[in-house]
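Figure 2 data, in text form.
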Amino acid sequence: MWRCCSIRLSGLRPACYQGILRLVSKRNAGLQWRHVSNAPASKKPTLPERTLLYHAGTGRTVFIGSLKLTTFFLFAYSAFLVAPAQFFHPELPIWVPLAVIIGGAIPMLVVAYATAPFVTYIHLRIPFYARRSKEDLMRFVEKVPRTTEIDLTTIGQFGWPHVYRMPLAELRKARYTLSAANVKRLLPPSSVNPNRSWWKRGLPTKFHVSVKPVGRRGPTPWQKVWDQLPNV
């Protein structure tokens, strides 16, 4: 059969023969293009660049936020409603309104100090190759670089979140006697402003993160990162 085809093609004119070859080459090119277009694409990342590693829990977060708001409203009620009424009372001494204001401020100050280092969320900024799957993420946090950026989110006095971004090298494990904080941030000299006013709030250096024991499924990504933090 091939011999018959070759004889027939050899008997054609050169122009017809070149046209047949051009048609066959175009057809092969189209098949090759379709084959390349149907090739599987590169694996896309399934995790975001800012990946959540730690969540303190919805119930605990709502409780602490509500406690801060409650103590603030208690102070406002004592300072702006009860204290003026006591001040203009003719039979009460002058120190009673002052005592009412101080008594209303003490719960707010205590709660603000005790819950200031409470961390609600921890996000880690991971590279592209660690975002393709959870297995790649676990391999990345096995020995996470110290220059990796980490975000710690806390709750403000009025329930607003505050996000603090820092490299992982600035965090240390710590223990405090009069505070629930267990993480300390070592501020670099460039971030300390010596001309800062006394009433302006500086960057926080104490944080509290709940660390649970390793379960049956093995350590979580945050537990792996926590184990790599050095002590103070």
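Caption note: The chain has six helices and seven strands.
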